[in-house]
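We emphasize that the prediction below concerns an isolated chain of 82 residues; any contacts that depend on oligomerization or on bound cofactors are therefore not represented. The input was used exactly as deposited, without trimming of termini.
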Amino acid sequence: MKKVAYSILVGLFCAAQANAGQQILRHEPGGGQLRTGETVLVDDGSCPKGQIKEVKAGSDRSVKTGNKVAGHKRTYRCIRHP
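Result of the prediction step, given as a token string:
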């Protein structure tokens, strides 16, 4: 029983640490300001109450060659506010 309780506490601590490092921005960063695949949280009022916008950066470079290509655009979704 003690092992289960300890495991739960460790899991909660790890989850709290993961959310503690996430910075919440007021405005979405401009083009070229996010690294490929980087995710940021933006509280600009565009999501329903209790939610926040998650912005994931796309890429304008080929994975194989590194040359500029059409790439992937940023993705957006509303998630539960941490």
